[in-house]
Each structure stands twice: as structure tokens, then as C-alpha cells.
Amino acid sequence: MDPVRNPFAPGAGQRPPELAGRDREVGAFEVVLERIARGRPERSLVLTGLRGVGKTVLLGELRSMAIRRGWGAGKIEARPDSGLRRPLSAALHRAVRELAVRHRAPDRVEQVLGVLKAFALRATPEGAKLRDRWQPGIDVPAASGRADSGDIEIDLVELFTDVAELAADVGTGVALLIDEMQDVPAEDVSALCAACHELSQSGAPLVVVGAGLPHLPAVLSASKSYSERLFRYVKIDRLDRAEHDRAVTAPIEREEAGIAPAALAALFEASGGYPYFVQAYAKAAWDAAPGDPITAEDVAVAEPEAAGELAVGFFGSRYERATPAEREYLHGMAVLNEGRDEPVGTAHLAEHLARKPSSLSPARDSLIKKGLVYSAERGRIAFTVPHFGRFLLTAGD
């Protein structure tokens, strides 16, 4: 079929496969927005799941929903070894600017921006040289005595309170969306939990929506014991067969084309229902199909092409980040679970590699930090990337 019309090319679809089957999550967030807008207490939201299930795309959709309701919204991506102040300041600056166009008191907006600037400036260590000082790009004088103590927990509570009150002035709220939330430094996670707790007590119209890997709830719980009461945890998983078929057929039908039932079954088998893979295999099948409808034979022809692209862009890019010791650890996992998306016991892995468990801890901890594996439960480890074990067994070193 015409590759120019390919509905699975990045950015081509009106509703990408990553959002198929997510109506429950979208509807739940609609309720959250409505409850907070009415001044009723509501927990912030945390989305968890493996890579490739569409968490980032869903997070973007939730941000768009908030904006359509007139909320201020900012989105950040957390990074290991990078503090929260700078990216959070930029995200909230954007949210405040969105609220400012509806606010009738410019002085009030400038007051909040001054507090935001004071918070942001504390991202620069004391005593830093002038050339190393970060300027947040907020064109008002920094406030004094508010959100500038240097204690991230105190400052974040004060900043969230002021921004939420500004939103309340115009009858809306603020949504702060944090991707890769498991990478937020421990001190900042604690501060974030404390701020969310304060907001839940006061009913302020500000909601945090985090997205991260399956062990994110454990990260939050280790930070604050009450975190399970602060957030509503939603697991984002692969699509079932019906959801997968809707994700594939809807874009094709918009192009007034078709796909054979056997081709749908073959695509589901190849992708495992993981949205990122669904899009990759469906895109390749469209390009491989000489005519309408797409057949199972077209899918078979397309599979090597899609698998090759995933091997380089999805799996290979992550594997390249691992050291030789970490690659040995990853290969050992793949052999033990025979390429399946299942956790393995760390003691069993140490036995398989003929190593003491303590000697493998540095590799395991580094792989967790790099986001390649996660602790599924005590004494067990799993890949964060679906089909990664299969990739390792078939691709070799």
C-alpha cells in the first residue's frame, strides 16, 4: 500500500495504538479533574507499567484533557542524578502562563511568578560563580521569604499552595505530569509526597500525575510510609486481543482499506499486544502489502523488517548502555527465563553465573538505575522492556 498514507507512521494517527484500550484511564482522569474543580478531595494519580505500553503517550493525552478544561498544565521527564527544582520550575511556569490569560489581576499573577522564580533560583548552589548561575527566564523580581528556604520539602509545599490558589481564582486547577517518576531523586520524592499530602488536606486544586516503571510504588513507599494513601495507582498493561484489533483496524479503516482476520492474528502474535510493537509491526505490514486488504502473508514478509528496526532503535539502544558486566547479568536473566517476560530469582541467577550474590549487586543496582531491570519483588528481578530476553537470545552479543 501507499507508504505516504501509512496510518501507523509516527504522528500519522488521530488516535495512536498507545491509546487503544485506555478509555478506563482517560475516564478516571476526567472524574479526577471534575472532583478537584468542585473542591472535593481527590488523590493524585500514578501510572505504572513496562516500557512500550504507552505510558508517555497516555500522559500526554491527560495533559491535553486538562488544558481543554482550562487548567494550567506542565509536563516534565525526570532524569537520574538531576534535581527536581529546575524542570519543575519550567513546567509550572508554563502552567501559570496558561492561567494568566484568564486571570483578572496581573499583580496576583506576578506575585506567584515571583514565588516561582525564588523557588527556581535555589536550583543554583550557593557560592556558584556568576557564569554558572541558572536564570529561569521569569520576568519578575524573585519573592523573598516564600519557597526559597533551600529545603525542597518546605519550598515545594509553599509553591504548590500558591500556584493552586492562583488556579482557584479562575475556577480551574493545575496538573503537573511527571514521566519516568522512578528517576526523581529520593529527597525530591519525599518532598513531592509531602506536598501532595498537604494539598490533599487542604483540597487545593492541584493534581500530580506520575508515570513510571512497575517498581515506582515501592520507590514512593520507601520515601513516605503514607504514600499509598496519596496516590491512586493504575497499572498500564499490554492490550488484550479485542483492544489490539481495534488499535489496528481503526487507523486502516480511516484510510478506507482493510485487513484480513488472519493478518490481525499474526500481528497480535508478533507484537504480544504491546502498543509500541503493535505500531511497529502494523506500520511494516502496511508498507509490505502490495494491495488491499493486508494479508497474513504481508505480515510474514514485514516481520523481519519490523524486528530489525526494533532491534536497533528499541532494544539495541538500551543494550548499548550496559557495561560488559551488566550484559552478562542481562544474558543470564534471558537464559533463565528462556526469553519470556518473567522475573527470575537473584539467587538462581547468581548460581547460574557461578558468582556470589553480593558480587552481582553492583551490576543489578546499575541496571535498575539505567531503567533496564526492576525488582519485581524481594529476591526477584525482571526486564523493564518487553521481549528483551527474546532479543538477547536471538541477537547474540
Q: Outline of this structure?
A:
With 397 residues, this protein is of the alpha/beta class.
State the helicity in percent bands. 40-55%
Number of strands: 8
Largest sheet: 5 strands, parallel
Distance between the termini: 36 Å
Q: Label the structural class.
A: alpha/beta
As an assembly, this protein is single chain
Number of helices, counting only DSSP H or I runs of 4 residues or more: 16
Q: Which percent band covers the strand fraction?
A: 5-15%
Q: Layout of SSEs?
A:
Blueprint: H1 23-37, E1 44-48, H2 55-68, E2 72-77, H3 85-100, H4 106-121, H5 152-169, E3 174-179, H6 186-202, E4 206-212, H7 216-223, H8 227-230, E5 231-235, H9 241-254, H10 261-271, H11 275-288, H12 296-319, H13 324-336, E6 344-345, H14 346-352, H15 357-369, E7 373-377, E8 380-383, H16 388-395
Parallel strand pairs: 1-4, 1-5, 2-3, 3-4
Antiparallel strand pairs: 6-8, 7-8
Helix pairs in contact: 1-2, 3-4, 3-5, 4-5, 5-6, 10-11, 10-12, 11-12, 13-16
Mind explaining what this structure looks like?
The protein is an alpha/beta fold. The protein contains 16 helices and eight strands. The strands form two sheets. The chain has a five-stranded parallel sheet with strand order 2-3-4-1-5. Strands 6-8-7 form a three-stranded antiparallel sheet. Helix 1 runs parallel beside helix 2. The longest helix has 24 residues. It is globular. The mean pLDDT is 90.
Entry keywords:
single chain; 397 residues; 8 strands; alpha/beta; 16 helices; 10% strand; 3-stranded antiparallel sheet
